[in-house]
Amino acid sequence: MKILITTSSFGVKDTASKDILISQGCQIITNPHGRTLTEEEVDALLKEHRPDGMIAGVEPLTENVLTNAAPHLRVISRCGTGLDNVNLEIAKKRGITVVNTPDAPAEAVAELTLAFILALIRNITVHDSEVKSGRWKKHMGYLLHEMTIGLVGLGRVGKRVASLLQPYGCKLLGADLKPDQDWAATHRVELMPIEQLLTQADVITLHLPYATAELHHFINKKRIASMKPGSFLINTSRGALVDDNALAAALEDGHLGGIALDVYEEEPYLGPLLKAPRTILSPHSGSYARATRTRMECEAAKNLLTELARSSSK
Question: Residue 224 and residue 148: Cα distance in Å, rounded?
């Protein structure tokens, strides 16, 4: 079987995932560009190699790409959680099975979120930059226990973030499309509509899937204006959830106290936030903890083999 691996970091730090595939007689074709592929690049690779299966990253698997890849491409195994880069409707129509690894990254993404919260409220990156540039100035920060944290999305990652924050004694607010009332009561998370949460939280952290078009720029100019002056925003979920131009404007005029982003609508990110003040920007590295990455890659490899065997038996 031919397997195309498009996520450029797959098996780089630990070869266990590739070893799983090789042990089953798979011929592996890897990403030759060493970065996220464009639509044209992934389309060209699929046309050239005609793989049976694919381990995918976040490259755009559009209607055009999937139509050209069928019928030889039978399974797409996403190494990660989100599937918004895959046209699921066309995949189903073309008989391509799509699977992901939703459990593996949750802990690492939650811990990155906690790191972002602490870095923002204690001005860690601001102090680091200023000391290195020869400026010795102290900026007053906040203690976590005096903060109100708003969790937007209470799935695997959102719930894990809530658990990590419990020992700090901060007030937790939560908003979710289908809230788990029992879990919220047990973890002392006060559930409320998103519009109410935005007005009350000192720190807002996003953990929503990008499941529908209605979520595009979920955090927009209007919602940012409703946030508390000086509040902080964190996004480790999906880049298209936020309007980066609106964020940049709110940072420039001082309405927001700071932001931390790990995900972007277009990656690599080249937008207005690169020059905005009080920002922490990381390169979609939420799952990049060694143990997490290895687990996620191995799950993606096993999922692929399982679904290929299932499709062969039909």
Answer: 17
Q: How far apart are the C-alpha atoms of 295 and 20, rounded to whole Å?
A: 12
* Alpha-helical segments (H) within 178-220: 181-186, 194-200
For residue range 220-238, what is the model confidence (pLDDT) as tens digits?
999 999 999 999 999 999 9
List, by residue number, the catalytic residues.
Answer: 238, 267, 284
Q: 156-165 vs 106-121: helix axis angle to the nearest 10?
A: 50
Closest C-alpha among 253, 265, 176 to residue 221: 253
Rounded (5°) CA angle 301-304-308: 145
Quick one: tokens of 196?
Answer: 């109410």
Task: Give per-residue pLDDT as tens, 5-56.
Answer: 999 889 988 999 999 999 999 999 999 999 999 999 999 999 999 999 999 9
- Rounded to whole angstroms, what are the CA distances from 57 to 36, 82, 83, 267? 7, 9, 10, 12
Nearest to 93 by CA among 60, 71, 72, 77: 71
